[in-house]
Amino acid sequence: MKPTSPADWLAQARADDSTRRRRRVLAALDDLTRDGQPISVSAVARLAGVHRSLIYRHGDLHAAVAAKAAQPPNNTTGPQASRNSLLSDLANLTERNTRLACHVARLEQRLSEAFGQDAWRATGLGAPTDTDTLQRKIDHLEQQVVELRDQLSEREEDLQASRATNRELMTQLNSIPHRPR
Q1: Rg, the chain, Cα only
Q2: What's the CA gap between 25 and 110, in Å, rounded?
């Protein structure tokens, strides 16, 4: 059907453009497959000269890219690893690397502590402080703080009672009529 109005012309032009872009994506996918290049949405979009969102928006294009990416390359000359096995190996090696880095950090810390103790003793600056004595002193001081807070609380209560008594006495004193002298 031939377009008759400007809106129809625009719709037809848009449909033609979409068809051209889809053909370019499929051609790029075939080119990457034929050349044995790694296949990804970004690689296909780059080669086709379109934005990645076009491939993601069209489910059939995205499925075609995903299917081709999952297939092993055609030009294999011997045993080759699949993409999934390589990704699995990468994840495992990354985890191993993380574990080894943590282990090295712990060993460095232990070594640093051992050298620190040796240096402390070698310099003759003195023996390390007795932590038990310090802990007992802290406990004693904390107990004193608790006792002093209790005393302060009792004195505040006494002060409040004294103030209340003083107010009552002043009220009584002010309520007695005064005689002129």
Answers
A1: 43
A2: 57
The answer for residues whose C-beta is within 8 angstroms of residue 75's C-beta and 6 or more apart is 36
Output the pTM of the full model. 0.41
pLDDT score, position 126: 57
Q: Which amino acid is at 6?
A: P
Cα atoms in the Cβ-side hemisphere of radius 13 Å centred on 154 = 6
d(CA 92, CA 102): 16
Can you tell me the distance from the alpha carbon of 88 to that of 71, in angstroms, rounded to the nearest whole number? 16
Cα of 94 vs its chain's centroid, Å: 18
Q: Classify residue 32 as exposed, middle or buried by CB count within 10 Å of its CB (0-12, 13-18, 19+).
A: buried
Q: What is the pLDDT of residues 72-119, one digit of tens each?
A: 666 556 667 777 888 899 999 999 999 999 999 999 999 888 888 777
What's the number of CA atoms in the CB half-sphere (13 Å) around residue 179?
A: 1
Helix, strand, coil share (%) of the chain residues, nearest 5: 80, 0, 20
Residues listed for the chain: 181
Q: Which two tokens stand for residue 47?
A: 């080669």
| Contact present, 55 and 62 (Cβ < 8 Å) | yes
User: What tokens does 56 get?
Assistant: 């993601």
